[in-house]
Write a structure and sequence with these properties.
alpha/beta; 7-stranded mixed beta sheet; globular; binds pyridoxal-5'-phosphate
Length: 616
C-alpha cells in the first residue's frame, strides 16, 4: 500500500476538517473498531463482547429465487439512427428463469472478506459494511465505476442504508445546526440546491436551520455562470443571510424532477467555482446507470431535424478521453461522476441499491476522500451501526457467491454468483427496459403535443377553411433517469412534467381561460382534471419540488413531473395516451366555475402529495 502511494503522482486530497461540524470534530476514534481485530484471532474464546449467541438466531438459512443477470435485454451504448425496433417495445425479457441463492448459517471460510454466512451477517458487525460486500463494492467503485479519480490513493467507501441515509450523514458531518432563537445569523450555514430539486433532501436539511439556496438550472442542470448561476450566487453572497454556503446538494443524471443530465464540461465549470469558494459537492446519483443514448437522436428524428452525430458516444455531453477504462463498454459509455474531476477531494458521492435492486433493501454506499470517510464511519458507529445483515448477506451471496460451493449458493446459472460481469450485465438490462419505457412515453407525448382545430374564416370576398395548430405542451426527451419534465420556451408559459422523469411544459397562455383566472388555479385545475374518471392519471405538480416559498409561489405552478418507471409495462402507453387526451380535453373547457373549483381542490391535494411521494 505504501509502495503504491510513493509512486502515485496525483495530488493529495485537501484537508476538509475546517468544514466539519462541531459534533463531527468532537467525535473520537471508536475503540470498538480496534477491539474487533481481536475477535478474528483464530481459536480465541470471546468472553468480552456482549454479543447474542448465533445459535439462538431463528434463521438457519436465507434463501431466495433470484433473476439471472441476463433477464432483460440491453439497449445499445451508442445512439441508433433511426431508432430501431430494439427501442420500440416497452420491456424485453428472456422470461422469468432464475437461480436459487442460499446464505448458509455457517461458512467454514477463514477469510472474512469471502465468508458469507448468517453467523457473521446477523451478528453486530463493522460500521464500514459487511466485510465481503464492502470489499466487493470498494473494488467495483475504484476500478470499474470511477477508475479515474484524480487524487492520490483514490477514494474510500462506507456502506449506508441508502442515499437518504448517506445524505443525512454527509450533512451531519459537514454542517452545524442553527437555531434562530439562540444563534447569531453569522453562524448560519447554507446548502446550495438546484432550483427545482428532490424534496426529501430539503426536508432533511431545513430543520437543521440551514439556508436553502437555489441555483439557476438549464436543460442540463445547475448553471455555473450567468445570472442566478453558482458563481453569481456565491460571489454576491449577502452576509446578512448567514455564512456563504459551503455545500451543494446535486443530482446530476436524470435529475429528480427535471431529468437534466450534466455534461463533463459543466461539471468542470461548477467544480472550479467550488474550488474558489471552498464548497463541498454532495452528488446524489441514484439514476447514474440509467443514461439514454437514444434520447437526443430520437428527439431530433421525431421533430424532423438532422441528426447531430448519431454514431458518437453521447457527443453533446462532451465526454473526456478515458485515461483508464472501467473494463466495460457500458460503464465507459456513461457520463462520469463528479469524482472524475475531483482533484482536491471535495466530492461526496451517494450511491444506492434502491434503483438497481429494490428501494426496500435500504442499502447504498458513500464514496469520498479517506479522511472524510473516516468521520462518516464515526457517525455510523453511533447511529445506524451498519445496514441490515439480512440484506447485506443476500446481496453478497447473489453477486459474489460462496467461496466453496459446499457453503451456500450464489446467483447466476452456475450458482457461483453474478460476479462483476453479471452485475454490469444486470445494470445494462435495467437501462434497456427503462430506456424503452422512456421511448414509448416520449413518442406518445411527441405525437400528442399539438391541438389541431379546423374552422372557416371570412375575408372580404371569400370564405376560407383554416387549420389552427396550438402547441399544448413541449418537453425534453430525457437523457437519463425516470422522469419527463415539460420545458417552456418562455418559462412563464409552460408546465413541466418529469418521470424517471420526462420534462413537460404546458402552454397555459393558449388556454381559452388564461386571462380569466390565475395561472396557478388553471394549472391546479388541469391536475385535478387529469385525475377524473375519464383519464385517471396522477402527475406530480411542480410545487412539491420547489425548495423555497418564493419559487413555489411564483413559478412552480408551471411544472408537472411525469414518471415512466412506476406503472406496469402495458400501462406506460395507456397512461401516456390518457395524459395527452386529458390535456387536449382540458383546452376545451370554457367555464370558469369548473376551473376555479378544481383549482381549489388541487391546491389542497397537492400539499398532501408532498408527504406521500416526498421520498421518491
Ligand atoms: C434524487 C434521489 N435521491 C435519493 C432517493 C432515495 O434514495 P434511497 O432509497 O437510496 O434513500 C431518490 C428516490 O427517488 C431520489 O430520486
Amino acid at each position: 500500500m505504501e509502495a503504491l502511494a510513493d509512486t502515485d503522482s496525483r495530488p493529495e486530497p485537501i484537508d476538509l476538517s475546517h468544514l466539519y461540524s462541531k459534533v463531527t470534530t468532537n467525535r473520537s476514534t471508536s475503540s470498538v473498531k480496534d477491539f474487533y481485530k481481536y475477535f478474528t484471532i483464530p481459536g480465541i474464546g470471546n468472553l468480552a463482547g456482549g454479543l447474542p449467541n448465533n445459535n439462538y438466531f431463528p434463521f438457519d438459512t436465507l434463501e431466495a429465487a433470484a433473476a439471472l443477470p441476463q433477464r432483460f435485454t440491453p439497449t445499445p451504448n451508442k445512439p441508433v439512427d433511426p431508432p430501431s425496433d430494439l427501442l420500440s417495445k416497452t420491456t424485453l425479457s428472456d422470461g422469468l428463469s432464475s437461480s436459487r441463492v442460499v446464505v448458509p448459517k455457517i461458512s467454514e471460510n477463514e477469510d472474512i472478506l469471502r465468508k458469507i454466512d448468517l453467523k457473521t451477517a446477523l451478528q453486530y458487525g463493522t460500521a464500514q459494511g459487511y466485510p465481503p460486500l464492502y470489499s466487493f463494492l470498494r473494488q467495483f467503485t475504484t476500478e470499474n465505476l470511477h477508475p479515474n479519480v484524480p487524487y492520490a490513493g483514490g477514494p474510500e467507501i462506507i456502506l449506508t442504508c441508502g442515499a437518504t441515509d448517506g445524505f443525512c450523514k454527509a450533512i451531519d458531518a459537514l454542517s452545524n445546526t442553527w437555531n434562530e432563537d439562540r444563534d447569531w445569523i453569522g453562524h448560519r450555514e447554507g446548502l446550495l440546491v438546484e432550483e427545482f430539486c428532490y424534496m426529501n433532501a430539503i426536508q432533511a436539511a431545513k430543520p437543521r436551520g440551514l439556508n436553502i439556496v437555489p441555483v439557476a438550472i438549464d436543460d442540463e442542470g445547475m448553471v455555473a455562470h450567468g445570472k442566478g448561476g453558482l458563481f453569481d450566487v456565491l460571489d454576491h453572497w449577502d452576509k446578512s443571510r448567514g455564512k456563504r454556503p459551503h455545500m451543494i446538494y446535486t443530482v446530476t443524471i436524470g435529475q429528480n424532477p427535471t431529468s437534466g443530465t450534466l455534461s463533463v464540461q459543466r461539471r468542470k465549470d461548477i467544480y472550479a467555482v467550488c474550488v474558489k469558494y471552498d464548497v463541498v459537492i454532495i452528488e446524489d446519483d441514484p439514476y447514474w446507470f440509467l443514461q439514454y443514448p437514444s434520447a437526443k437522436e430520437s428527439s431530433l428524428y421525431r421533430r424532423g431535424q438532422p441528426a447531430v452525430n448519431a454514431h458518437s458516444d453521447q457527443s453533446n455531453l462532451d465526454r473526456p478521453k478515458l485515461q483508464k477504462s472501467s473494463g466495460y463498454p457500458f460503464l465507459d459509455s456513461l457520463v462520469p461522476s463528479y469524482l472524475s474531476v475531483d482533484y482536491q477531494g471535495r466530492v461526496v458521492r451517494l450511491d444506492t441499491f434502491s434503483k438497481t435492486v429494490a428501494p426496500g433493501c435500504r442499502l447504498g454506499w458513500i464514496t469520498t476522500q479517506p479522511n472524510l470517510c473516516e468521520r462518516l464511519l464515526r457517525i455510523t458507529e453511533t447511529s445506524t451501526q451498519q445496514p441490515s445483515g439480512f440484506v447485506q448477506s443476500m446481496i453478497s451471496e447473489l453477486i459474489m457467491g460462496p467461496h466453496d460451493p459446499k457453503h451456500g449458493r450464489g446467483g447466476g446459472k452456475s450458482d457461483g454468483g453474478w460476479q462483476v460481469d453479471g452485475w454490469v450485465r444486470w445494470l445494462q438490462g435495467l437501462r434497456g427496459n427503462y430506456e424503452r419505457r422512456m421511448q414509448t412515453m416520449c413518442s406518445i407525448l411527441e405525437e400528442g403535443k399539438e391541438l389541431v382545430k379546423s374552422g372557416r374564416r371570412k375575408s372580404i370576398d371569400n370564405e376560407w377553411s383554416v387549420i389552427d395548430k396550438v402547441t399544448l405542451f413541449d418537453f425534453i426527451w430525457p437523457l437519463g433517469g425516470m422522469f419527463v419534465w415539460l420545458v417552456p420556451s418562455d418559462p412563464s408559459c409552460f408546465v413541466v412534467l418529469g418521470l424517471t422523469l420526462v420534462r413537460v411544459h404546458l402552454n397555459f397562455p393558449s388556454h381559452p381561460l388564461w386571462n380569466k383566472t390565475t395561472p396557478a388555479k388553471l394549472a391546479q385545475g388541469l391536475w385535478v382534471h387529469l385525475t377524473s374518471k375519464k383519464y385517471l392519471v396522477l402527475v406530480a405538480p411542480g410545487a412539491i419540488f420547489a425548495p423555497t416559498d418564493e419559487i413555489r409561489a411564483k413559478r412552480s405552478w408551471a411544472y408537472f413531473r411525469i414518471c415512466f418507471a412506476a406503472v406496469d409495462e402495458p400501462d406506460v402507453e395507456k397512461m401516456s395516451r390518457r395524459f395527452v387526451n386529458g390535456v387536449k380535453d382540458f383546452w376545451g373547457k370554457k367555464s370558469l366555475d369548473d376551473i376555479e373549483e378544481m383549482g381549489t381542490r388541487g391546491l389542497e391535494a397537492s400539499e398532501g402529495l408532498v408527504d406521500l411521494i416526498g421520498g421518491c
